[in-house]
Amino acid sequence: MNTVLLAIVILACVSQTRQARAQDASTDPAQTSSWDKRFIREAYQNSWIQQHIGQLTQEKSQNDRLKAAGQKIVSDYAQLTRELKNIAPGAGPIPLKLSSRNSRMLDHLAGLSGNDFDRAALRELVRYEGQTIRELDHEALRGENSALKQFALAQLPILQSDLNVGQSLNIQLKSGAREPSDSAAPVVPEQPSQ
Fold it and tell me: How does pLDDT run across 138-149, given as a tens digit for each residue?
């Protein structure tokens, strides 16, 4: 009799643990902490902005490496958004109302061209990439939902790679260096005549 009772108690505990894990992974709005809700909102917002800047970069940049970086940004953030929607369906639709600052920034970028566009777009891509990485890092460390924490940890290396490319391009543009694909002959200093 005691063995049967013990087995029933163990099965009930296992069942409750499975239900708790399922609730945690579903990101039910009632079960989602305010910290996690804020993270979801910020992740969607930053993803939308990065995709928009990446699309502008593909259309307007004159630098092939920056165009390629813009394409990768769009792809990486579209994937981030899809994965986040799968993890956090209970969060519901996230309104993508841009702050007036972000709207002005996007309008400003859309009005630029040439090197001015490249520098400004790259500056914003790097800034938002860093901001998104900080958000992911905070979620991985402080988030309460295990599925969101795992999501954040999985995204960090992808976005860190994007940030490294952006920072490298930023250094290249600031120094006025040419793209590696340029086939201009190197300048060789003249030898002094004897």
Answer: 999 999 999 999
Please report, for residues 35, 55, 77, the alpha-carbon distance to residue 145 in angstroms, rounded to integers and kept in the order given: 10, 32, 21
CATH number of the domain that residue 79 is part of: 1.20.1260.10
Counting the structural domains of the chain, the total is 1
The answer to whether 84 and 30 have CB atoms below 8 angstroms apart is no
Amino acid at 99: S
In a domain, 158, yes or no: yes
pLDDT digits (tens, 9 = 90+) for 56-103: 999 999 999 999 999 999 999 999 999 998 988 766 556 667 889 999
User: How many angstroms separate the most distant Cα atoms in the chain?
Assistant: 109
pTM of the model: 0.73
Closest CA to 79 of 105, 109, 54: 54
Amino acid at 169: L
In a domain, 90, yes or no: yes
